[in-house]
Each structure stands twice: as C-alpha cells, then as structure tokens.
Amino acid sequence: MDRQWIKMKNRLSKEYMDGIASFMGVAIQQVNEKNETRCPCKKCLNTQWKALQTVHAHLWEYGMSAVYHTWIYHGEKFGLPRQDATLPNGVEALGPNDVTYDILNDAFPRDMNQDLHGECDTFGGMKMLMQAKVENHWTNKSFDILLEILNWACPKPHNFPTTYYATNKMLKNLGLGYENIDACVNDCALFYKEHVGKDKCPECDEPRYKSSTNEKRKKVPQKVLRYFPLKPRLQRMFMSKHTASQMRWHFDKRVDEYGVMRHPADSIAWKEFDRMYPEFAQEPRNIRLGLATDGFNPFGSMSTSYSMWPVMVVPYNLPPWMCMKQQYSIMTLLIPGPKAPGKDIDVYLRPLIDELKELWEGVPTYDKFTDSGFKMRATVIWTINDFPAYGNLSGWSTKGYLACPVCLEDTSHTKLRNKICYMGHRRYLRKNHPWRKSCDFDGKYEMRDQPRVFSGDEILLQFNHLRPCKPGKHPDNYDRKRKRMPMELNWTKKSIFFELEYWSKLKIRHNLDVMHIEKNICDNIVGTLLSIEGKTKDTINARLDMIDMNIRRALHLHRDETNLVKKYPAIYTLLPHQRQSFCEFLKSVKFPDGYAANISKNVKEDGKISGLKSHDCHVLLQQLLPVGIRPYLPKEVCAPLMELSNFFQQICAKTLKVEDLDRLEVDIVFRLCKLEKIFPLAFFDVMVHLAIHLPREAKLAGPVAYRWMYPIERMLGKLKGYVRNRARPEGSIVEGYIANESLTFCSMYLRNGEIFSSHHERNNDGETNAKLSVFMHNARPCGGYKMVQWSELEMESAYWYILNNCDEVEPFKNEFRQLLEIESPDNLEQRQRKLFPQWLKTRVKTLSKQGLGDATNELYALAYGPDKRVGMYTGCVVNGVRWQVKHIEETRTTQNSGVMVPGTHGDQQSNFYGRLVNVVKKGFQDGYHVILFKCEWFNTQPRFFRKKKIHRIRRDYHLTSVNTTNVWYKDDPYVLAKQAQQIFYLDDPKLGSSWKVIQKIRHRHVWDVPENEAAHEVETIYDEGVDQDGDDIVITSRDENELPSTSLRRDDAEPEIVEEEISLEPIGVDDYEEVLTDDNSIEEQLSGDESNSVHSDDYSDLD
Description:
Elements: H1 14-27, E1 36-38, E2 49-51, H2 52-62, H3 99-107, E3 115-117, E4 120-121, H4 122-136, H5 140-153, H6 164-171, E5 179-183, E6 223-227, H7 231-236, H8 241-246, H9 249-252, E7 260-261, H10 268-276, H11 278-282, E8 287-293, E9 309-315, H12 320-323, E10 330-335, H13 345-361, E11 363-367, E12 372-376, E13 378-384, H14 387-394, E14 414-415, E15 420-421, H15 456-463, E16 481-483, H16 514-529, H17 540-549, E17 558-559, E18 565-567, H18 576-587, H19 614-629, H20 635-651, E19 656-657, H21 658-678, H22 686-690, H23 694-701, H24 710-721, H25 729-749, E20 779-789, H26 792-804, H27 810-823, H28 828-849, H29 857-864, E21 869-878, E22 881-884, E23 898-905, E24 908-923, E25 929-938, E26 943-945, E27 948-950, E28 953-956, E29 959-963, E30 967-968, E31 974-976, E32 981-988, E33 992-1000, E34 1056-1058, E35 1075-1077, H30 1081-1093
Parallel strand pairs: 8-13
Antiparallel strand pairs: 1-2, 3-4, 5-6, 6-10, 7-19, 8-9, 9-10, 11-12, 14-15, 16-35, 17-18, 18-34, 20-21, 21-22, 21-24, 23-24, 23-32, 24-25, 25-30, 25-31, 26-27, 28-29, 29-33, 32-33
Helix pairs in contact: 1-2, 4-6, 4-25, 16-19, 19-20, 20-21, 21-23, 27-28, 28-29
C-alpha cells in the first residue's frame, strides 16, 4: 500500500482508515512491557508512549505526522522496503463497516477533507469552537463575530465558516434530532397519531394554529411539544466499547453483599423485579431507567411567570460514578409553558409511554463491546420528582386531608383554624406503649393501628371507583373543579404509567424527594427557633389551636387584668441575644472548597436568616444546627432535634445497611413523637410527616443519591443556561441541547471512549505510572512554591516515615529487625530507625547487582535516598479533593486544611486530628517523588490537674469536639498525602473558643463501591477514590416515660403583647365537605419557586 494516505485530509475516508490499520499492524509488534508504543500523531510526534487504542484514536483525531514516512520508531530501518501489515485480531479499527463510521459518513459533507487552517482539520476545529460556545454560553451573535475575526486575522487560504448557522450545520447531524408535536393550547390533547391531521382540538375544539391574516405564510401552532426519541439514544450507549461495557457493570462488577446497598441493583425493588420477570433479568444489557421531571422558570426572574417541564431518564445499569452524570442523562420530552401541565401531564407523556411499551418488547441493538447484536429491552423502575410533581405523575392529590401518597386513605390529619396538620405518629408505636394513652400530644388517646401499605393490585381496585375525568384547562371543562366523591379518596386520575404492564407490580413507583423534605423541615425548625416572621410556626393562630384542643396550657394566650393579651415565649424559641450568637456562629463557618455555598451571606444583621437554597438547608440541618443550638436550648428540645439531624445523615449515606434502616424505621417514630410533644401543631405539615416513610423507601429502592432531585435540578440549571432568545425559550433550549448532544457524541464515541473537554477539571489530580506504593498516588501540588534545603533532622524524620509506610519495604524491615534482635534486644525501635536506611541502601544495591527481581528501579530509587532539596507548596489536589495550608485560610471563605488520619498511640487505636501546615514534594532518582503533608496534630490525650482528669476531646451526642490549644508529635508531623482524610472544624459555642467541633466530609466524587474482577476488562476512564467515612450513629432514646419534664414556657423572658383584637374562646372544628380543586396554581407556585431557588446547588458536594 502506498503511504500517501498519511497526507490525506479526509481522515474519514476508507483509504485513511485502511492506512491506520496497516500502521497498527506494525506498531503492535513494537510495544514495551506496558503494552504501549510511541504515538506518531501530529500532537505527540513519537515523543510519548501511549496505549495502542489511544494511538489509534490520536491518529484519527490529529492525523499522523506528515514527515513520518519510514516508521523507524516502530521497527523499520532506512533503505529497507516497508512491510505492509494488517490489523491483527484484538485491535479495533474504525473502518467503513463500523456503525460509528456510517454515522460520520452520513453527517459530514465530502468537502470535510479540506484543512481549516494549516494542520487543523475542519471537523476538529469546528468541534472545539462549538464546544467552547456551549460551555461558555456564547450568544449566536458573539460566535458570528468571533468567526468574522478569525476569517480576517488568519492568513489565507483557510476554510473558516462565516456564520454560526454554517458551523452548526456541520455538526448537528451527529445528534439524534427531535420531533415537534403540536398540542392543544388548553392541554387537552396532542395532534399525534390519529389526530395528526386535525386543525382543531378533538376535546375542546380550540384551533391548532395561531390566527393569521396572511394565508400564504406557514401556519404557526399555538403550542408545541418537543419529543426526543428514546430508542436510538439508548442504542447509542452500546456504540462505544467503554459505555457498552459499563452498561453491564451492575451484573459483571457489582459486589452483591448481603444486607448492604450501594447501588439501585442492591435494592429490594430491583431484585423483586428480576424475580417477577426472569427473562428480562437474564440479559444484563437490558436497561433500568429512572424517570424524572420538574418545572422551572427559564428566565430566572420571579416577576415573570413561566413554567416549562422537561422529562428526563437516567440509566441505572451504569456504575455509581456515571449513572447520575449529565452526559448520561437523556431528555425525552420538553413540555412547553407558560403554564405548568399539572395533572394533564399525562397528555404530554403519551409519545414516551408508547415508546416505553415498544422498549418493553425489545428492539434490535448492536453491542460494540461484544461485537454482537442483541434484543435490547428497557423499563422504568420508578420516578424522581418533587412533591407537587409526585401528585401530577401518580394521580393522587398531595393536598387536603389525605395529602400523604403513601398512607393514602389512612393518612392521619387534624383540621386547625387555618390549615391542616399531620400528626398521629403514635400510631406506629406498639399497641401497649404508654405514649398512646397520653393526652400531652394532641389531647387524645391514640388507639389506631399504623397505616397500611397498599399493593399495586389494591390501588387498581380503588381506580374502579374513580369517575372518568376529561383532561384540559378549557374554561368550559366541568372536570376542572368538581366535588370529590368519598369513594374517590384523593385520586384525580388513573396515571398513564399504569398502561405499562409491569407498573402495578413495582414495589415502589414514585420516590419521595429527600432534598425537598430536608429543606421544608429545616425551614420549619429554623423559622420557629429564630421567630422569623412568615417562617415561624409559633404564630398567634398556633397558640389559638392549642386553646381549641385544650393542650399545652402553659403556652396558651393569656389576657391580664388590663385586658392585654400576652404571648409567652416557648422553650423552643431563642431569645434575641441567643439569636444573635447563633447567627454569629453561622457567620464564622467556613466549608471546604466546593462542599457548600457560603452560608454567612444568608445571615442578616437582625439575627435572621433568609434566602436559603436546598443544599444550604441540607448542610444546615445535618451539620450546623446541632452544633449551634446546644448552648441555648434545653435538653428536651435539643435532643430530639439532634436525633432528627442524625437521622437525615444516616438516610443520606451513600452506603446503606438494611439493619441500620430497620433501626431508623423505629427511631424516626420516637423522634417525631418527641417533637409532637414540644412544637406547635402547625409545625407538622405534610413534609414533616413524610420523613417517617423514608427508611422504608430506602430499604426498597436503595441509597437516596440515585433518587433525589439534586442531579435533576443541576440538569435544569444547565438547560436554563441555553436560553438565548427570550421570546422562544423552548426553541433555544432544544437547539442548545441538540448541540451539546452532538459534542457529547464526539467526546464519548469518536475517541475510543476518552472523555474530551476543552479544559481539565478544576480539581484534576494528575496521573502517575509508578508501581511502588509510596510513588503511586493521585496527587498534584499547586499554589505557591519554593525550594528549600532541609536539615538532617527533618530529612531523617520524613524519610523514615516514607520507609515505614511503604508496603514493599516491609519484608526488608522484618529482615533487618531479626538481625538487630540477634545482636541485642535493647532499644530495637531507636536502632532500627537510625540504622535501617543505610542497610536498605546496601541491601538493594546488592540485589540489583545480582539481577534479582525484588530490586526494581523504583525500589532502588527509594533506597538510594531523597534529594536534600524539597519543594514546598501551599496547596495540593489529592484524589479530586483540594487541600490548602492553614496560613492562607485567614483571608479566605473556605477551609481546606483540616486533616484526620487513623493511627495508633501506644497500644490504642486513635484518630489524629490536625491542620495542614505544608505540602512537601520530596524527590528521588529517575524523577520519582513522594507527596507528604506536614501537619500540626492536636493533643487528644487527657491531662491531670490536681488529680482530676481533664479531657482534651469530648463527645456530645454524635458530635466530637477537640481542644486546639495543645499540639503533639512535633517531631513526627508527616503523613503521606494519600493517607489524609479531609475534615473541617466548626467553632464550639458551648465549650468555648479553644474547642472545635469535628465534621467529617462525604465528597460528591468519592464512592465506597468495591468491584468484582470482570471477565473482560476495558481500560477504565475513571479513577476516583473510594474512601468514605461513615457518620456516627445516634441511638434514639426509647424510654417510655421520657417526656419533657420542664414547663414549655420560658420564664427568663418577657411575654409579647398581641396587638390585634382576638377572642380567646375555644371553637369547635366541624367536619366539612372537601372540594376537589384542580387548578394547579398552588402547585405551580411551589414548583416554580423551588426550581428557581435550587440552581445554585450546582456547587453542592452531592450527586
């Protein structure tokens, strides 16, 4: 074969692909021990060794160096005839028969063989320009101006396109496109299938198109649903060897450990589905999907009322670090605004449900990993949504007396003067529990059984009593507002999901969203404790509710002899100076980089907190509130709040144990009952009640990280960034999504699975090819740098720590220790530390001369000793976690210096707590290096004063505080960077300024997921740490006689004078007939507000 193919511009041509195949046949014979060869692409120029698949990808991406005609680095010699070779078995080539090649061949015109400029081809250049536009949210106009500048500035000739339209035309065909389906303006029906040719709505007779006086113009529909076909998008996931292999992860690599859940595949719901449908389970490539939807305002302005609803699916076959990522989430529908669809969302779900029925039967699919075809099937195993959307999708109204969609008709409710509360959690106690016969909760005995768990078949029977309901919001639609019959309960419709034959058999169909439950509970607690106007539940009406029910007399409003009505402060409210101290504590909080937003910005001067986002509430409830309230609230209030905080810490863990969930299912009952005894009835809205169902749902569906709204809200935030034309927000979002989908295809499938980005992640930790344990680390020093000369004492201390923590050196240490014991058993530790380094150097030199395998080059470099010059840095990124030294935090709002390392002190296991002082890069021969952390360690050993033992570390509930005034191990301050676990410290307002509360961190990118060895390995793309600290568990007190023993009234504060005229006479609450209200204004308000307030959660440390 002639090697003119090297100079070809069209790298998609058959000649070029065959040329790459011939080169790979030669290159595979010239690999090193790592199965790598030199890469001759225009970027590497034979200076770097790469894996064969990476070389193949580089040759396609960048082209081969134009001057490399004789392949001297791959076995050929000058003057000898070249040997053509074919690609041997096992090496993949992108050829004319490849599915990916067909897509490219169809997508790009033949003039793509021209250079954009110099050695930059048109495809590669346009891909990078478009990715920059999408990532940085450039407008079309700014992109046109950039192209104009490039056309003017670059030397001629060149082939830069002149407009965004021309650029987009080159790349958009790589996307899978979408369909426009016209909809009725009143959400009655779609002009779809049998209605596709109609000009008027078949339900309300509204016109399909906008009125126009110009009959020659193209008709414009009043409302358009954008539908993104799901089948080809799922099939595309099997077009890359990497993604195709990862789609089998749940079957091939997941460790199935009894009683432990780390992935949805470990859950009861997944395994029960396998049992009911064994044919589906036999094919591990069949896909389990989670369906998510929520409304959001694309304009980001609360003054503009607009709500559009994307519908997305996430594939759960993937491993934890992939399945909730945005690049693997698929938008299937974009339901247009400006009004939310409400319960009429089923109208818009029709195309998706029809396709899900086809996917249940199966579609032929090609699997690149196994190079074979199979019948791919898919199923939706549950939905992910906030509480209003739960009602829209399930058909059970989440308002009114029976608002709980889990308890259904057994929902406990109490009518108050201006609202409904949901108490009655004593129903979950055992039958003979003394609290059931106490009137201190709601003034009544509680003898009812706990609510039933309704099966899918029982729910289907309830639908038999449901009257048919006509969809749509037309003013003449009688079904918009009608009286609900008693036998209909809270059902508003039979959900369209029940058309799927497996839907009624699922153990869990819709998930309660922990994210919004946490936010609402946190708002209730903080608003009540701080008496925030509009947020507190301890209002005048709440006190009148107590009078009506004749409970908690100490908190009743009191009219004195001067006819003034007084409201006495309760023990759960903070006094003004306490509120001020609590807010000062919040202002002092500093979180690690990327962990959470700066919550001090939400603290106001008047001792109030406002503008909290969902993740702010997540962190406040779980970590800050327990620390901040301890000095100010009595034990009767503080204890149940801290127990509730710990409950959410446990339920949000990435790894769940069934036995822990069984305990939490019992404990949450006691925690809510304790709160019922203390807080006003208005505190217990339906969101507080829903917490009692979270342990059961976690047992059924697994960790909440796969089922809550955080990743979905981030996706909504990304879609929101696509809006450029405010007059056509849906069109802007669709075009941006399709462009991003095209770039994702280029990134994931056209480079053999290497994830392409125009920049590294901010916390990229670098790579290392070393094999020795101390040299093998994912650590990248950063920040300020200086080179220093260490003293002999510092050098000896650091070097000994490295040797003492190197696994490969351990056999040599044991050998040397035996020699020392023969000489003398005295002072073994001191003698070994002093003499071992020189002995090791001599020993390894001897082994190296003898050619023994134990003396590797890396071990020789370690034994030879370090350079006396060391690099000192102010920061380091280790396993994706950013660290910074202590002294630079004083002027920053983040805290990245907290260190915890497990170890031993004497004969006892102990955790060492400290702060990072310096990042040390210690060099060895042949470019090897070790990253050390130099730390100051807080002394945790107790001291004695006048024969009294004084502890330097204290535990209060699940909180651990350490005294920071004394340090120890000053002569042994080093740890390996990879050994350090990041923590952060909070001021302890209870114990004083010298005490810090230790807070462990669960990083978003850290997963505690062991893997089985797969039969067929593919080079992994991801390299994420797997360390994860568990949270301390609080055991809830279940003392049957434990109820608040003190008065519920504060005696250390003056009462508040009620200005308004009110009557203190109790009134009876009569039953009334509930009216079914199907206008969704309340639900739209909730959904719209929340969607606008949570997009800043992109900075949260959860996923």
